[in-house]
């Protein structure tokens, strides 16, 4: 069992991404298979071929397969950039700066853990998710309550500091922001409720 140290929500996000990546991978593999089938059906009609004819067929097949693989690699890179964009946008809303260690992307041990996760946990979790799929609340989009709160109250460094120290105090930090916007000694009551 591969343990990435994520909470259940983030583990499910990884599973969703892996499903997406696997479906794209299977689609590309089917396209490559069809390239070979097309060559067999259209060009392999004679019983004997000259060396030049075989070379020409293989060169044509190489170009098609190379184009498909290159397109998939480009799409994968662009998809990963879009995923990073989503994560960074969410982090920036809370004034966070995320960092990545590019060298970890080629860490064989970690890659093997991901492969093991895909083989074992991903499949069992996939079955469990199909059986117990419950409707989930969608995150608030732009223009929702969180944006209205940010416009009305603005960034609160103390609430952010509390959030960094203990993620379970997010609700209390939000109550502090709410209490502060209402007047009276909201800060002291929220600080008291977080301890």
From TrEMBL:
One Pfam family this sequence matches: Leu_zip
Cellular compartment(s): Cytoplasm
Keyword annotations of the record: Coiled coil, Cytoplasm
Keyword ATP-binding in annotation: no
Database matches in InterPro entries: LZTFL1 (IPR026157)
Subunit details: Self-associates. Interacts with BBS9; the interaction mediates the association of LZTL1 with the BBsome complex and regulates BBSome ciliary trafficking.
UniProt family annotation: Belongs to the LZTFL1 family.
Task performed by this protein: Regulates ciliary localization of the BBSome complex. Together with the BBSome complex, controls SMO ciliary trafficking and contributes to the sonic hedgehog (SHH) pathway regulation. May play a role in neurite outgrowth. May have tumor suppressor function.
Name assigned to this protein: Leucine zipper transcription factor-like protein 1
Organism classification: Eukaryota, Metazoa, Chordata, Craniata, Vertebrata
